[in-house]
Amino acid sequence: MVLGLAIALTLPNLPSLDRVTDYQPRQPLTVLTRDGVEIAQFGAERRIYLPIANIPKRMQGALLAVEDSRFYEHSGIDWRGVARAVVSNLTGGMRQGASTITQQVARTFFLSQRRTAERKFKEALLSIKIERELSKPEILELYMNQIYLGHRAYGFGAAARTYFGKPLDALSIAECAMLAGLPQNPVWANPITNFERAQQRQRVVLARMRDLGEITEEEWKTARDEKLQIRSQLAVEVHAEHVAEMARRAVVERFGEQAYTKGYRVTTSLVAAEQQAAWAALRRSLLEYERRQPWRGPEDNEDLPEDANGAELERAAAQALKDHRDDDELRVAIVLHAGAKELQLQLASGEQIKLAGEGLRWALPGLSPKAKPALSIKPGAIVRLQKLDKIGWAIAQWPAAEAAFVAMEPTTGRVRALVGGFDFARQPFNHVTQAWRQPGSSFKPLLYSAALEHGVMPGTLINDVELALPDASGPTGWRPQNSDGRFDGPLTLRQALARSKNSVSIRLLQHVGVDTARAWAANFGLDPDKQPDNLTLALGAGSTTPLQMAGAYSMLANGGWRVAPQIIERITDAAGKLVYEAPPPAELTDDTRVLPARNGFITRRLMHEVVTSGTAARAHVVLPRDDIYGKTGTTNDAVDAWFAGFQNSVVGVAWVGYDDPKSLGSRESGGGLALPIWLDYMRVALARVPVAADPPPDGVVQRDGEWVYSEWADGGAVARIGFEPDPAEAAAASAFAASASSGASATSPP
């Protein structure tokens, strides 16, 4: 009678079951590559919602075996289990609970975790109510998607990714059993924080599965002996953090804070393998450059207990490393013991390493008794280690320089890869879209393109001799030098670009005119107000971003059309409904052409010479194909290093420099720093791409091995620039002026 009265009084006060009958799980914002590889998730809860039909039977069986083996037999409360738990608890046996899956659903969705009689009573009544409203599969689906399983993973779909880096349906019996053991205590016994505890729990699950007939004796033995590979917390399938942040901002701007809970999925234009190749290439180039720099000393210093050894020292070192972020390539380590020629260190993983010889050579100045305090390496010093192919573990340091890389399809603008810097967590600034830097000689193809429209053809001779130009800064004027330190006299236009001759570029700008050249650069998408209105324009002394340069070079690659870069392709909601789709790229028609086709063709031929015999000849050695084009760029004092180039299906631009502009070093260049990034990316991007033909368009012919505009096939183009006036040069100039005034040569794009 008392129980009946309590139930009658409690039932009206029970919460509505709307939260379970109309289940709306909190699902994170997910960002993907175009080929479906996850880049990032944003939200407090990592969850991959799976209908019960998509949850493997072996995973369901493993969970029920250990959590609620009579789930399909009881009606919310397992009275047999309750009795068994009471007897065990009263007789001093192992303390047992008796909560069913349904009771855990009631507690998770509606009640607190406090162990009180009132909560248990309400939990029981809610369980009965839930069983009346929902089917068993629906209840199990709720549980397996909602339960917390450690490391911000909610539900078994997310846990499979978190702990094993696999989808749930790819897990083995042993892996399923490990996950099934997590609900009991996901913080205390999960395989990342304590593998031994997690494995003990896993073996309990496997034994229950065997005893209940879920698996055979043979399957039990195989699963028990399986060596599990737990996914490293540092492991990332595709590094695209800068793009993920761009996507996150776009979705939050559109949908507000609900972007983090409604399960929106953003598909970007990135190609997973190419993105990862670009990320690895950029880091490799910067780390190689960094090893050519002086040792700068430890990142930090921590206090370790004096005279501590063994387990005590290991624990103190592990505690000290908790405040320092690890990296999957530059591993954080703390110095345990320091000798004159040897270091003993401990990684964040607990592994201990001894360094000596070649692996320690870089940091030897820090081990000298006379070392400056900033360089000194003592016990407690926080340093970085890198595993090198030839010598194994070696001392390293975090790069001080930065870099950027972007690749896009020249006909659509779809961005295939974008790496905004060495490490997003340390430096979220996106150098691809936000870094305004001097393009240096990578600007020259745009200037040469302008010169073609002013009668300068690949065979035109330009005199590469020193220039003395008026300059208010000093009595000797401005005497620009060539990067190779030489003046080679008469060169053809093709030879001059291949050798990146500054004096020739200045003479071309004088011929074209500064205002005309600035306007021409604007046709390529560069901001006119960021380009100088003087002759330094010829040396790329203006400002641009890597993304702008990718757009400019796309025009040279696609035959003359400006395309808008596109990164976010579509957004869907949790149900898969399309809520945003990027508009299709503009059609490439004669009405939308910005650059004459013949101009682009001849400019490409000039740039091909750069990668076969010029400053980027290494490109043709690494990629021996006849359809690559590009230009190195190194600014004054090597403050900025560039390589921009393309094949007709993809354009890539790489940049290296310091955030606070300063010289990268007198021996550094775009060919040495940026070109390797481009090459390592292109090896992957072009691996299965056949060599493309580049047929000449209408309006060009070949004479004496050089391409020229058809109207100058028999003469009339500018023959010479920069020589002492002579009748022939004057006659050629007059002939060009006459043909230009009659409309035979375009001075601006159609």
TrEMBL record:
PANTHER family: BINDING PROTEIN TRANSPEPTIDASE, PUTATIVE-RELATED, PENICILLIN-BINDING PROTEIN 1A. InterPro entries: Beta-lactam/transpept-like, Glyco_trans_51, Glycosyltr_51/Transpeptidase, Lysozyme-like_dom_sf, PBP_transglycosylase, PCB_OB, PCN-bd_Tpept. The lineage of its organism: Bacteria, Pseudomonadati, Pseudomonadota, Betaproteobacteria, Burkholderiales. This is Penicillin-binding protein 1A. Its EC number is 2.4.99.28, 3.4.16.4. Residues 404-649 form the Penicillin-binding protein transpeptidase domain. Pathway: Cell wall biogenesis; peptidoglycan biosynthesis. It holds the Pfam family Transpeptidase. It is a single-pass type II membrane protein.
